Amino acid sequence: MINGKKIAVVLPAYNAELTLERTHAEIPFDIVDEIILVDDHSPDKTFELANKLGIKHVIRHEENKGYGGNQKTCYNKALEIGADIVIMLHPDYQYTPKLIQSMAYLIANGVYPVVLGSRILGKGALKGGMPIYKYISNRFLTLAQNLLISQKLSEYHSGYRAFSADVLKSINYMANSDDFIFDNQMLSQIFYQGYDIAEITCPTVYNAESSSINFQRSVTYGLGVLGVSFLHFFNKLGFAKSEIYKKIS
Questions:
Q1: pTM for this one?
Q2: Which CATH superfamily is domain 7-243 in?
Q3: When you count CB atoms within 10 A of the terminal residue's CB, does the N or C end of the chain come out lower?
Q4: How far apart are CA 197 and CA 102, in angstroms?
Q5: Is the pLDDT reported for residue 59 higher than 80?
Q6: Rounded to an integer, what is the distance from CA 99 to the centroid of its chain?
């Protein structure tokens, strides 16, 4: 805990057998109270390894629900067990667990309700091996999103995120996609509800074990990102009324 705030780290896992143990070993258990791993019906031994490591909350989907569907289960479980701060960490070791303290302290001390680990601040992305086409598309999409949503994030595509429970309880994330576009929908919802988001510099590692989507799915994702941004824009103007922007509490 920090300042009496219960901290849960959620691990949305798919084929994470090769990297899970290394990721788990670097989690700062001096402040983290709960670990939740959701295995999205991996064909490898992610589920078995998670239990072997002694992770308290291990959930296995009986069928693959997708990246967004995995996160929905993660956040639902975190709120169910009473977490005050929820940090999403990919178990593929693309993001270092060593930033958990910094992200959690910003929320626990009431500085920001949401914190992102940004690969773009500094030189973390290219230095860590991000493919150049992904870097260029990241910059283009982020520029378009900032213009349409009227924000100034360095990137909207980081998978390293920390939320206060109050934020998760107030946004309708269950109405979001079960695919990769879920991440962008969440940020759009958070901004739509008037919350501020902080960013900290995050080194990243791209290797054979890190999860990634192929070029074709990247194109589909990019079009989806623009679609979410335009939807946000038109909802703000009152020209559209999407269910994803319904405030829960």
A1: 0.91
A2: Spore Coat Polysaccharide Biosynthesis Protein SpsA; Chain A (3.90.550.10)
A3: C
A4: 14
A5: yes
A6: 14
**Distance of alpha carbon 173 from alpha carbon 196, whole angstroms:** 17
User: Which structure tokens are listed for 39?
Assistant: 């295995």
Q: Are the CB atoms for 124 and 204 separated by under 8 Å?
A: yes
Q: Shortest CA distance to 77 belongs to which of 61, 99, 53?
A: 61
Two tokens, residue 16: 């994470």
Which among 62, 68, 86 has a CA at the least distance from the CA of 10?
86
Rg, the chain, Cα only: 17
State residue 215's pLDDT score.
Answer: 66
| Residue 212 in this model has a pLDDT that exceeds 60 | no
Return the sign of the alpha-carbon dihedral for residues 177, 179, 181, 183: positive
Q: Which two tokens stand for residue 34?
A: 């709960």
Comparing CA positions, the residue from 135, 233, 249 lying closest to residue 188 is 233
